[in-house]
Amino acid sequence: MYDCADDVLAYHDEKVTLPQSERTAMRERRDANRERLKKGLRDQDKPAPREFKSQGSYAMKTMVQHPQKDYDIDDGVYFDKEVLVGARGAEMTALQARQMVRDAIDDGSFKTPPEVRKNCVRVYYAAGYHVDVPVYRRVTTKDVFGNETHHYELASSEWKRSDARDVTAWFDEENAAQSPDTGNGRQLRRLVREIKKYARSRGSWGSQILSGFGITKLVTECFRRNADREDKALYDTMKAMRDRLKLNLVVEHPVTPGETITKGTDDPKARFLRDKLTEAIDNLAPLFEPDCTREKALKCWDKVFNTTFFSDRLEKASELETKSATGASTILTSGLLSSAAAVAQTAVRKEGGGRYA
């Protein structure tokens, strides 16, 4: 396989992973949202949250650049079950808890008002971001000896046992255990980002392809590490994912037994991802030809990611070589002229001061 490892890493660093400025902007919006929610709950004499916890791709650091800045930040808010009671002392339903959070966040400053969704409250920002706020309750139980244990429940269509922090912990453990390196986020995390970027490389794919969470689970399941070749690790992992989806389109939830990310045995989004992975593999086939050139190889990666980034690298390298060669030629010419001038100068004087050839 033609070696484009440095090019794939450059693409990841420049076009895939989020720049620090974007991370900072997201963190500021997240923190402002938390303060808005706490103030709204206080003003409405509602219970205070026990904690907040970022989750999803934001917490796993697998978010990728998006030209329209369509970023989804997940930031869970946690309450003690005991405080989630209504005006008459009855236990809040899952819907009532989400409505309470929505009402507290909505201070009238948003162009699009926050809305209650099935598993969260969604807050929209004009810049393209949206913050999803899942609502959880902490349930405390005691055994016969009086020892306390805790679990968490998500306010969905009903209260459902779940805690997205378990997913973050699962991914961090997989990333550390499977990656052959420790720098630049580690290779498993980088490949999750790169394949998510591929899944978003065409605008028309958005609603048809498997979710980022589903892709994350598949990458961890099919990961093919390669400490020396980022491009080969990416190709081999994409091929392993495609082959796995040929056998079975069901993608299981990583931490919730019996739950799946996909729907049914013939999930259309998993099937779409499988077919697009096949296209990517086919587009990279020329890299295995014995006479493959760098130009041809880079065009293949351009085609996969729907970009000109890779070919542009070749063009920039050629321009630098030309400038370097031109500069060397100028220096050489200048040196020769200086030497000729020096020789001529030594021949200018003799006793009478005349010039002699």
What's the topology here?
Blueprint: H1 5-16, H2 20-43, E1 51-55, H3 56-60, E2 72-80, H4 94-105, E3 115-116, E4 121-124, E5 130-133, E6 135-142, E7 148-155, E8 159-161, H5 165-178, H6 187-199, H7 212-222, H8 230-247, H9 268-283, H10 294-305, H11 309-346
Parallel strand pairs: 2-5, 2-6
Antiparallel strand pairs: 1-2, 3-4, 4-5, 6-7, 7-8
Helix pairs in contact: 2-4, 6-7, 6-8, 7-8, 8-9, 10-11
In whole angstroms, the N-to-C terminal distance is 63 Å
* Molecular shape: elongated
Which structural category fits the helices and strands? alpha+beta
Main β-sheet: number of strands, strand sense, barrel status?
8 strands, mixed
Stretches where pLDDT falls below 50 for ≥5 residues? 340-357
Q: What percent of residues adopt helix (DSSP H or I)?
A: 40-55%
Structure characterization notes:
It is a single chain. The chain is of the alpha+beta class and 357 residues long. The chain has a domain at 16-163: 2-Layer Sandwich (Beta Polymerase, domain 2), CATH 3.30.460. It contains 11 helices and 8 strands. The chain has helices at 5-16, 20-43, 56-60, 94-105, 165-178, 187-199, 212-222, 230-247, 268-283, 294-305, 309-346, and strands spanning 51-55, 72-80, 115-116, 121-124, 130-133, 135-142, 148-155, 159-161. Strands 1, 2, 3, 4, 5, 6, 7 and 8 form an 8-stranded mixed beta sheet that branches. Helix 2 (20-43) packs across helix 4 (94-105), helix 6 (187-199) packs across helix 8 (230-247) and helix 10 packs antiparallel against helix 11 (309-346).
